[in-house]
Amino acid sequence: MQWGQTVETLEIEVMAYDALYLSPHFDDAVLSCGGQIYEQTARRERVLIVTIAAGEPETEVRSFFAEYQHHVWGLSAAEVVATRRAEDARAVARVGAELMTWSLPDAIYRLDPETGEPLYTSNETLFGPLSPAEAPLVAALAGQMRALPPASRVFAPLGVGNHVDHQLVRAAAEQAFASLLYYEDYPYIQWQPASLATLLQPPEAWEPIVCPLSEAAIEARIGAIAAYQSQLGMLFNGEEAMGRLVREQIAATGGERYWYCRFT
């Protein structure tokens, strides 16, 4: 099983990057790490964001759950992917990174290979265990990740919130890379802070690293998140509330926090 990749903004050269961010969806890397990415690129570091579940659905089969998501986003089925790709390109440009997109469909569109029925049809399934039918996909994505340009540091989602696509990307990254840094998935970390303890096991293995942010970096992150217009209502109840909530999380953490596991 292979999913192609496309470059949305800049032609990606096969050379080393200072940092590589694996983003399950169009917005995750910027939502979670936009400030530190801005700080890195301001220092003239090369940063590549790889947006993984960024492809068109392979069939016209849709669940009611997928159609409901489109309604919440204010988009028709025909315009969802193109609109969200354009949002992602604007957001990534705002923080100065380069962008690569892959053509794996979002979890809400993926089908059981045996039955042809949608795999994730409710919040309970979308935030539950990864379907056993997708076990081969983990290995396939890991293979693609190994073919990415080399990077000094690779950031993967920790999986706060338990979204299946975040689980998928983390599992594939752990197969593909010898060393990872794990970012706290925002806004899930703000919604479910207590869930962090369940992911950091055993506790003694995990070391937190806080990246303080300048005011320019905070403004860049908020401005970049604002590019995801289709998501602001669902995630934050609007742009004004988003800016306030992002600042609250940054203040509570002291910046943007990621984690290193010493036992890997």
What descriptive keywords fit this protein?
264 residues; alpha/beta; Rossmann fold; 8-stranded mixed sheet; 11 helices; 8 strands; 42% helix; 16% strand
What this model shows, in words?
It is built from eleven helices and eight strands. Residues 7-11 have low confidence and may be disordered. With 264 residues, the protein is an alpha/beta fold. It is globular. It has an eight-stranded mixed β-sheet with strand order 1-4-3-2-5-6-8-7, sandwiched between helices. The protein has a single domain, classed as LmbE-like (Rossmann fold, 3-Layer(aba) Sandwich). Helix 6 (164-176) links the parallel strand 5 (151-157) and strand 6. It has helices at residues 28-42, 64-73, 80-94, 123-126, 135-146, 164-176, 188-191, 196-199, 215-226, 229-236, 239-253, and strands at 5-7, 17-23, 47-51, 98-102, 151-157, 181-183, 206-211, 256-261. Helix 1 (28-42) packs antiparallel against helix 9 (215-226) and helix 3 packs antiparallel against helix 9 (215-226).
